[in-house]
From TrEMBL:
Family in the record: Belongs to the NAD(P)-dependent epimerase/dehydratase family. dTDP-glucose dehydratase subfamily.
Species classification: Bacteria, Bacillati, Bacillota, Bacilli, Bacillales
Protein name per UniProt: dTDP-glucose 4,6-dehydratase
GO MF term set: dTDP-glucose 4,6-dehydratase activity
Gene name for this UniProt entry: rfbB
Gene3D superfamilies membership: NAD(P)-binding Rossmann-like Domain, UDP-galactose 4-epimerase, domain 1
The reaction(s) this protein catalyses: dTDP-alpha-D-glucose = dTDP-4-dehydro-6-deoxy-alpha-D-glucose + H2O
The enzyme's E.C. designation: 4.2.1.46
Organism: Paenibacillus agri
C-alpha cells in the first residue's frame, strides 16, 4: 500500500509553514509536498532543517496556473490537500484587490478542479473568521459556523468567495471537503508586517510601534501550533462537508496586546504611536469553537503562555526577521 501523500499549498507562509513542520514531524509515514509561489511573504529558511527528510519535498508553483496544477495532480496522485495559499494582508488588499481575487478565488477554483478530477480523499480549505464581518463589543456574542458571511475588506471578500466555491463543489459534485475558519494566529515565523511580530521587532529596536485608531479593536488570538493540531484533526476526523471554527478563547484589544509585549520586554509605553485607522477596520472578532471541541480539540496555549513563548522565539531568532526586514527595505 502506498504512503498517503499530502499537498500543502502555501507551505512557505506563516501558518502553512508551521503546519508543514508539524506534519513532517508527526507523520513520518506520510509524504508531504509543500507548494508555494514564494511571493513576498513566502520564506523557505524555516524548512532548512527538513530538506534532507525523505518525507518532505518543495515545489514552487502558482496555484492559478491551471495546466501546471493539473499536471502536478496527475503525476503525484495526492491523497489529501490542505489549502493555505492565499494573499492575506488586509492593507495590501485595499491597495490592490485584483491580486487577491486571482490567487484566493481563481487559484482555489483551479485546485478544486484538479482535486476533483484526480480523486483526492479530503480537501481542507483553511479560511478565516474575517469572512463573517465584525461583531459589536458585546462579550456574549460570537461567530459560529452558522453566522452569515459579511466580509468587509477585499481580502475577506476574496476568502468568502473561495469558501463558497468549496461549499458549492461539495453540494454539486459530492466533493470531499472541510472548511476551517480561524481567529488571528500568532507564533514562530510570523511575517513582520503583522501586529505581534511588528510590535516585537519595533520594540527590540526601540522604535515607535504604530497602533491603528484608538487601539480598541478586539481580536481572538490563537497560537499557530494549536491551529495546526486543529487542522490535523479536521483532516482526519472532520465530518465531510462541514465547517469548523478554530478560536483560542483569548480576546484582547490591539492596545492590550501591544502593552503586554511592552511590559514583557521592559520597554516604555511612550513607544506607542497611534496612527490613522485602517479603512473598514472591523471592531471585534470572536469565535465559538464548540463544534471543533466536540470533535476532540482543545487549545493548549493561553495567551499569556503563548505570547511569552513567541516573544522569546523572536529574541532567539533575530537573524530570521532582520533579514526579512532588510529584504523588504531593499525592494
Amino acid at each position: 500500500m502506498s504512503k498517503p501523500k499530502v499537498l500543502v499549498t502555501g507551505g512557505a507562509g506563516f501558518i502553512g509553514g508551521n503546519f508543514v513542520q508539524y506534519m513532517v514531524d508527526k507523520y513520518p509515514n506520510y509524504d508531504i509536498v509543500n507548494l508555494d509561489l514564494l511571493t513576498y511573504a513566502g520564506d523557505l529558511t524555516k524548512h532548512h532543517q527538513m530538506e534532507s527528510k525523505a518525507n518532505y519535498r518543495f515545489v514552487q508553483a502558482d496555484i492559478a496556473e491551471r495546466e501546471l496544477i493539473s499536471n502536478l495532480f496527475e503525476q503525484e496522485k495526492f491523497s489529501y490537500v490542505v489549502h493555505f495559499a492565499a494573499e492575506s494582508h488586509v492593507d495590501r488588499s485595499i491597495t490592490d484587490p485584483a491580486v487577491f481575487v486571482r490567487t484566493n478565488v481563481m487559484g482555489t477554483q483551479v485546485l478544486l478542479d484538479a482535486a476533483r478530477k484526480f480523486g483526492i480523499t479530503k480537501f481542507v480549505h483553511v479560511s478565516t473568521d474575517e469572512v463573517y464581518g465584525e461583531l459589536d463589543f458585546d462579550p456574549t456574542s460570537f461567530f459560529t459556523e452558522d453566522t452569515p458571511l459579511q466580509p468587509n475588506s477585499p481580502y475577506s471578500a476574496s476568502k468568502a468567495a473561495s469558501d463558497l466555491l468549496v461549499r458549492a463543489y461539495y453540494e454539486t459534485y459530492g466533493f470531499p471537503m472541510n472548511i476551517t475558519r480561524c481567529s488571528n494566529n500568532y507564533g514562530p515565523y510570523h511575517f513582520p508586517e503583522k501586529l505581534i511580530p511588528l510590535t516585537i521587532s519595533k520594540l527590540l529596536n526601540d522604535e515607535k510601534v504604530p497602533v491603528y485608531g484608538d487601539g480598541k479593536n478586539i481580536r481572538d488570538w490563537l497560537h499557530v501550533w494549536d491551529h495546526c493540531a486543529a487542522i490535523d484533526l479536521v483532516l482526519h476526523q472532520g465530518v465531510e462537508g462541514e465547517v469548523y471554527n478554530v478560536g483560542g478563547h483569548n480576546e484582547r484589544t490591539n492596545l492590550e496586546v501591544v502593552k503586554t509585549i511592552i511590559n514583557t520586554l521592559g520597554k516604555s509605553e511612550d513607544l506607542i504611536e497611534f496612527v490613522t485607522d485602517r479603512l473598514g477596520h472591523d471592531k471585534r472578532y470572536a469565535i465559538d469553537p464548540t463544534k471543533l471541541e466536540q470533535l476532540g480539540w482543545q487549545p493548549t496555549y493561553t495567551f499569556e503562555t503563548g505570547i511569552a513563548q513567541t516573544i522569546q522565539w523572536y529574541i532567539d531568532n533575530t537573524d530570521w526577521w532582520e533579514q526579512i526586514l532588510r529584504n523588504e527595505a531593499n525592494k
